[in-house]
Fold:
Amino acid sequence: MRNHLILILLLFTCCAQSATTPSKSEQWSEQLVSQLSLNAIDFLEDGSLGWIVGDIGQIEGAVIQTIDGGKSWYNIGKVTEFLTDVDFLDRHRGYAIGYAGTIIVTENGGRSWRTLRTGTEILNSLSMFDESTGWVVGAEGLLLHTTDGGNSWSKLNTETTEDLWSITVSEDGRGIITGESGTVLWSYDSGKTWTKQFVGYDLAFYDAIILKDRVIIVGEGGTILETTNSDAWQKLESGTDRLLRAITNDGQNLLAVGAAGTIVSSSDGGKRWTVFQLARKANLTDIAVAKNSFFVTSAKGILFKKAR
Structure:
């Protein structure tokens, strides 16, 4: 059941042993918020309310919340499954996904959760466009779609059996899914239809970010690719060969995080990247922006924070 997570952790370990030397260091604070692995983080736009989901312990899984912009965190959830992603629409309604085909919803800010779906699949990434419409991707080419707030989910054809790791749908109707073996899928009609593409690199790509004039994806071997037209991909020199797991943008800077405490950043739109090395070489799993800070989750239950 946890084969896909084990694969990522093995890739993390492999990459950690052969990475390039960081160009300089940064001041990141750290806070142990759980004894469990932290897999995903999400903040509302005002930056005060945020949630983290993660692994499952002997009694219950990790759902952790902040109400003060990340100064303090509290375990609030009562969940019984390994969770891989979380997406909140407002201070009350949020969704989370995980193993065993699990999709759950909360309507009280995460204090309690209702199961919308279970199965046998491993679900990896979630994107809720609004209260009605959303998508989930997972193992073996799985793509699920809802138009009724998650009460029912239909399978969409992806024309692939590769594991799919991330899905992002923007307000302008563009959507991208990233996966194993250089697989991406594009949508230009707000996720109604998807077209498969090979990016030219036989690697796993774990996350994507849609910018105004281009799309950037990150993945194995420190690989960062960008495209302006969805046809041709250009490789950006990241300065590292460590696996990159997630990427974000605060309007001025791009940051990507990955294996063994590696963080790469760019202040010129991705032309040049600087490598930063956290003192604690935890495998980093996700990154979010809230108010004046970046927050990075890790597989060791540690949350890292840095002022913007």
Remarks:
- The chain has one helix and 28 strands.
- The two ends are 38 Å apart (CA to CA).
- Helices lie at 3-16.
- The first helix runs from residue 3 to 16.
